[in-house]
Amino acid sequence: MKRKHDNGFPARDAIVAFIRANPGKIGTREIAREFGLKNADRAELKRILRELADEGAIAKRGRKIHETALLPPTVIADITGRDTDGELLATPTEWDTEENGPAPKIRIHVPRRLQPGTAAGVGDRALLRIEKADDGEGAPYRGRIIKIIDQARTRLLGIFRRLPGGGGLLVPVDKKQAGRELNIAPTDTGGAEDGDLVSVDLVRSRGYGLASGKVKERLGSLSSEKAISLIAIHAHEIPQAFSPSALREAEAAEPATLKGREDWRELPLVTIDPPDAKDHDDAVHAAPDPDPNNKGGYIVHVAIADVAFYVRPGAALDRDALTRGNSVYFPDRVVPMLPERISNDLCSLVPGEARGALAVRLVIGPDGRKRSHSFHRVLMRSAAKLHYAQAQAAIDGRSDDLTGPLLEPILKPLYTAYALVKLARDERDPLDLDLPERKILLKPDGTVDRVIVPERLDAHRLIEEFMILANVAAAEMLEKKALPLIYRVHDEPTLEKVHNLQEFLKTLDLPFAKSGALRPALFNRVLGQVRGEDYEPLVNEVVLRSQAQAEYSAENYGHFGLNLRRYAHFTSPIRRYADLIVHRALIRALGLGEGALPDTETLETLSEVAAQISVTERRAMKAERETADRLIAHFLADRIGATFQGRISGVTRAGLFVKLSDTGADGLIPIRTLGTEYFNYDETRHALVGSRSGAMHRLGDVVDVRLVEAAPVAGALRFELLSEGQVEGKVIPRGRKRDGAKASTRASKSHPGRSPRDKVRKPHKGKSGKAKPGKSKKGKSWKR
């Protein structure tokens, strides 16, 4: 029975209980219907829901309401141990402890009859179906294993260090394995040399003394930076080799023909990509709309490689692609989601070759809004392969032999259509964060040449906006056909993060008056007010940190950053599994032939896929970031003692993180080296503040630092701060010699992954005995 107060209004705990019983499925309307509330009661209901949210009892996820920190019905979790009864315990793999507190425990129910592939142990990672546990036995959730994602590691990755008497030690590169060195017997070194990156099988992990290992594979020497990406690939267990059956399927695949397709080979579609792109999976075309009812409007065609024609549900190629989830991009290599026969050949829209594609025809009005769309399975032939700067140069009056003939018939209509689309985009007012995005360029020998910030051109924005339009059209079409799909979703910031942002902006006398629904425009107004100011980077950084992370979901709660109610990834099926699912759904919805989404794919099964590929996406991002850190640490390792200019990119109780202006490298200034006084962490100001002087070091401050330590294997740098703190805009002078600021070459506690035997580069001195000076230079886009 639904418990109510005497006035007939539902009790607060009854509302929370109803929300708990229907996780992620209800909003204000459903609550009102459940408790028989009339329209006149809506204001009071919203007031109660606001109070519950302020108290932290509930939270909104788009238009849906859920219990705070409630896990979704399907989650990927790491099995961490056993309880006193011997039952397995797990915690969610992706969990924001800063926002939600400690990760909740999940007790795993193991049935008497195990399904194949569900036998798990401690250390495994598994896909779980979970529900709230009401037995009060410590774990708030109980779950059952759907399938094992990763087995517990019996192989470690590390650096081999040879010992004088033969044999050696393995120093793990995983920071979590810090200090857990393995003994390698002389007969088990596998010919490894000192400093080699190796994988080692665990031989003995119990008993007294060091665990033992046997070198299984030599992966390269760290003297070659081409080995650096291998560290991340192996550390994150990113699959490199395709299964033999998948390779056989790829080799047996035949080029697409006109069978079951429209002939678009005469439509002059072009690809516009980065200059070093290996695959080309999207092509575009635009022309004025001849319809007199759409005078001034344009028709935009977006053709996407027909990956679903080659990668069929349940086949070996499909199984391998789902395991990978996405392609992973490193400076020296790509780990593709699909074999090259598919990604770089049959599905690459190269000029002059007939290629199968799934295409969308978008009718754009003179106001830039999409009036209609239709999807087609086609055979196309790309008219040209262009890179961004090349297309932009042609529009700017610097055509070359390739773009000259394309300027009037192809490029100018594309840019005119983009100008219209931009009108609607500006009116929609998505989150306008534009942060520097650096790219590492390598020399032919694999060492770092330089780090650049590519210029952001209208050519980039043109492709981006056309792809967004196509993605929206795909989501709208599948919703219209009532088919399940995987959405690309981005939740609005939590109330706590919005409150923290408000408090921070108060310290800058910047208003952030939230009234009504939260919209990106509210953040854009703040960003517009600080444009051109000294603290513009600081505010951009804090606004970015207030945002949620985009993910994949079979449940739609909109895309806050793009300010779109429905959005799905459709435009890159070569490198993202989510897009492949959307292609299959469109083929099924529109009866476009082979490769359709099977009838067995339901909201439940797609929720499992969405959870899995959200994890693989974050795995790829982490691996790419760690590789960049290691490459830059190698690049800077012989410049110990050099001074650089940078910006404070993070403030914690442990110290200051600084991002260098010229390379984008991140390093730590331990709090103990800041000076003789005690420094307090001011969370609201994002600053460390001196207890006596009030000297403040704040997020976003431009500072000069000296590099005092580099650990290339861990990708870690340590700096000494040279700049002075500020109080109320005034610089607080300090002596050149400061107690506690002496440079140290010892391994820092702030880098838990560093072993005493890990190579740490010490100051490199010239003939004078002084550290060699280094060059200092004064010094993108938010992901959708």
TrEMBL record:
Its EC number is 3.1.13.1. PROSITE patterns: RIBONUCLEASE_II, S1. The keyword Cytoplasm applies. Residues 731-784 are annotated as: Disordered. It is an enzyme of class 3 (hydrolase). Residues 641-722 form the S1 motif domain. It comes from the Bacteria. One of its GO terms (molecular function) is exoribonuclease II activity. It holds the Pfam family S1. 3'-5' exoribonuclease that releases 5'-nucleoside monophosphates and is involved in maturation of structured RNAs. This is Ribonuclease R. The gene is rnr.
